[in-house]
Amino acid sequence: MVKNTDENAKITEERLRLEATIESIGDGFIAIDESGKINKVNKPALSFLGCEESDLLGKWFPDVVKDIDNDGRPVPATDRLVTKSLQTGESVSGTSNYVRKDGSVFPVFITASPIILDNKPIGSIEIFRDITKEVESQKEAERHTKEIERMNKFMVGRELKMVELKKKIKSLK
User: Fold this and answer.
1) Which residue of 34, 105, 141, 169 sits 20 to 30 Å from the alpha carbon of 124, by its own alpha carbon?
2) Where are the domains of the chain?
3) Which of 108, 106, 85 is closest to 96 using CA atoms?
4) Whole-angstrom Cα distance, residue 63 to residue 154?
């Protein structure tokens, strides 16, 4: 009896440590079972998506975590990274755009990995983060590059005109 109580206490402590670990992840964390239903989600994921736990738990992942491509079209469930990791048994990463509960869209970097038990996938976890700042920085860098290229083209053109004018002046002498 005492041994059972000790084992239960250890299991409870391990479960609490696992819960604390998942909640300590600064990125969004969503776990699904083999049928694609969400069975665990952390607070950052809820915050990013603007949802409550009850909006997600027990629901089919593609129905409640909306994913759209850069043209605003929904990404089919079969093309979702979390689905691919479950089907292949391998970790996959990439970028996409998630839709918050309020309809606003934000870019994400996703890593999806299968949950393996007895050498077979029994679910998948997805870790995602909002990359809005990175995307905005990239766009700003591209704008600066275009501006520099425009200025460079202007300066080279001006220099070429100066060379041409010097030749004309020389020829007039």
Assistant:
1) 105
2) 2-130, 132-173
3) 108
4) 52
Report the top-level CATH class of 2-130.
alpha beta
Tokens of 94: 């990439």
Burial code of 82-109, b = ≥16 C-beta within 10 A, e = fewer? bbbbbeeeeebeeebbbbeeeeeeebbb
Tell me, letter by letter, the H, E, C secondary structure of the chain: CHHHHHHHHHHHHHHHHHHHHHHHCCCEEEEEECCCEEEEECHHHHHHHCCCHHHHCCCEHHHHCEEECCCCCECCHHHCHHHHHHHHCCCEEEEEEEECCCCCEEEEEEEEEEEEECCEEEEEEEEEEECHHHHHHHHHHHHHHHHHHHHHHHHHHHHHHHHHHHHHHHHHC
